[in-house]
Design brief:
The protein is α/β, with parallel strands linked by helices and about 575 residues long. Helices cover about 45% and strands about 15% of the residues. Strands 2-1-3-4-5-6-7 form a seven-stranded mixed β-sheet, covered by helices on one side. It comes from Anopheles coluzzii.
Length: about 575
Amino acid sequence: MLRCVTVFKLVFSLTLFGDGIASRQKDVVWYVSRLAQDLRKETAADGVLNCWMLQFSPDTKYSTLQSDLAQRLNTQHISLMQANQQGKYEFTMQDPNIAVIILGSKTLTMDDNNMSQWIENIHIECKTIVLFELTSNVNKFQRNAYYLTALGLLNVALIALNKNYVYTFYLNPLRVRGHAGFPGYNVLFYDRLKTLQITKLRAMYRNDIYTVGACENIVGEDIALLQLFAKTVNLELHLTKLQCNDNESISHCSSKLYNLDVLWNRNFFHRYNKFSVSCMEMEQIAIATPAGRLLTIWEIMLKPFQHSVWWLILALCLGFLLMEQLAPKMFTNSLVGLALFGFEKRQLRFTRPSEKVVAIALIVMFFLLKCGYETKLISYITQTPREPGALTIQDLRNRNITVYHRNFDTKPMDKLHGMLGKYESNIMLFDGLTVLENRVGLQINTMHNEATRDAEHSYKILPENVLEMLPFYTFHPKTLIRRPFQTFQYRVFEAGLPSYWRQANFKCPKLYKSITQINDQQTEHLIHVDNLKPLVLFFCLLWAIAIVVFVVEVIIVRCFACCR
């Protein structure tokens, strides 16, 4: 009789325990569906909510839990993808917004490659819920916690299926916080970046015009952006310069590094990379080509007027001189000498009205021509004119000029087909070659070239762009800073700080001081007496010719008078 009572008590207690577990699982199903509903409200603007339900427990007793939870999630119009421990991950699967892992009593280990592949492909912003059985074995719970954080699952909530406990993580160092009952959504899925105790941001970069400033005391605009971001979110920034070989790509060079949060150089992708953040501004690839040679002093003298104008002036002067010789009674004065130099054989007020009209017209015409001519010459003193160089890509092609580049992918550059050449040096120098580079780099290098070299090696940038591409910053797939940085970058861009940093490089005091010194030297050289000597000789020659012409005309007139 006593034995029967004992057996009855054991069966009754097991029944109550089973009912307790079943009730707990129903509460968990309701709680997980409520968390998914809260997440759906939070991400309503982002489109469809994708959910992964991964059944890693080998026990079949969780099949009811899985089916009930799947039914509840489907009623909330959530895109659900289910997989068991034999299911294989495929790259074409959509990334989840929420992942539910039914773990049960299973211990997560690195030996299970299939399970590790599933967890590794859950991105860091994904809200992850792990359903497990809580036991008295603390080491087992710790191994599961360290396993999840090692694979980059940080937004994790662990819900016990047999106890009334929910756990969440604090990171760096790893700390576990327990909650009794069912805490709210914001209690479990908070901003993990604000709870870090070890706050380090590890970034690698390679020298380029966006990471190195034009002066020693000014950093590049990308480094300034990263420093401001680290200061804003209270992170300790560790910058390391990449040491890459000449023919080594930046992706291959950075692959040898570990514990890297971000590769802080602008990269271009032919395919979408979900772990990258756009730079908010298109990169313009342009061409810099040597400007034409400086004109000589005699070419400068003829430059103010076109050749047709010079021939017209010469024909007009010769025509009037010839008319004076063939028909001396038509005009009593030499109208060309009168208009150019003011020489009068006879006072103009005593001449006929027709001669007055023609003389006044010539005087006004030559006066306007001289004003324009002198204005042009004065402008050439401040900026020495050059021969017209190439203005478009078609001009470069017509002149059979090779365009040199360093590390560009030339496949999308159809405009330069058959014109490209590889530049072997690591540093792009303005040494007479036509070069291909992004426009910002060309502008800075052009200013340096003008400040450090003479005017004969001047370059100009073609206004036409060869290509426009959108660059990206590349982040580690399991870093917490990508999404906060994306939001921060939008605000910085709207505030206009990138343009301010870029102008600081353009208006670098050291650079402008050098340019001013070079310009002062060039101006002093241009107005030197040796340079003005041809100009003085030119005008003296004109005056000598005018005097000779006037004397000859006077002699001829007197000879005719004596003969009569």
